[in-house]
Amino acid sequence: MEIVKIQNLNKSYYKNEKAFNILSDLNFSVEESEIVSVEGASGVGKSTLLNILGAMDFFDTGIVEVCGISIGKIPEREKEIFRSEKISFIFQHHLLLPDFTALENVMIPLLINKANKQNVRQMAVEILDRVGLGNRLDNFPSELSGGESARVGVARALVSRKKLILADEPTGNLDRENSRNLMNLILELQREFRFSMVIVTHDLELASLSHRRNKIVSGQLQPI
Ligand SMILES: Nc1ncnc2c1ncn2[C@@H]1O[C@H](COP(=O)(O)OP(=O)(O)O)[C@@H](O)[C@H]1O
Ligand SMILES: [Mg+2]
Fold first, then answer.
1. Three-class SS state of 65
2. Given strand 220-223, what is the order of strands in its sheet?
3. Which of 18, 47, 91 for a ligand 1 pocket mutation test, highest count of atoms within 8 Å of Cβ?
4. For labelling, which of 74, 156, 165, 218 has a CA lying 20 to 30 Å from the CA of 145?
5. In this predicted model, what pLDDT tens digit does every residue of 102-134 receive, in sequence order?
6. In the chain, what are the domain boundaries?
7. Which atom of ligand 1 is the closest one to the Cα of 51?
């Protein structure tokens, strides 16, 4: 089954009554358990595409189906449910909540999804252990290195075992060694959990590890 199916997607931003066309008749699909990169120069619309996939941004015309749900057609309330059930994000700036420990940051998506509370702590501990942070559970984000924060971000995205992970420049803030470690960790976990993943990245090393590469050119997605 296709996890992502986009047909003839058009997206413009409107500013001072002028339209800026960002994505034009873009087509894209992602299969189950596939890792696909989206590359391209700064400002071409990579984050815009990712945000549309996550139902975080609107689009003008076209069909966007994620996990079989046509997200252009569903009301706001259902978008929240769609996001909480189907999708996780990994961000460049990790966006950990500063007043919560690593463990709590990873538990939060499970608590939002009203998982069984007794299991939540256990599941969060297990995934943090898996990403090599079993000895950092009680550290606050300010007490973690950049590489460690990135791994907490990965743990938080993977703890609820969603079908689709959307990653926007996940290694953007890291040095080479930490980028490599994070990439290898993501790949290892993907082989185990079999999620699909769209990775927006400038990082050619990361992109080259995806199963299929694409770039946005003139508002359209081209295979590399
Ligand atoms: N909310 C917005 N309003 C108006 N223009 C925007 C908005 N968000 C992004 N843009 C513009 O859309 C283009 C694509 O942005 P973005 O998707 O963030 O690019 P990328 O992630 O490829 O660097 C950029 O030119 C940006 O300035
Ligand atoms: Mg971007």
1. strand
2. 87-91, 164-168, 196-200, 35-39, 212-217, 220-223
3. 47
4. 165
5. 999 999 988 887 667 778 999 999 999 999 999
6. 2-223
7. 17
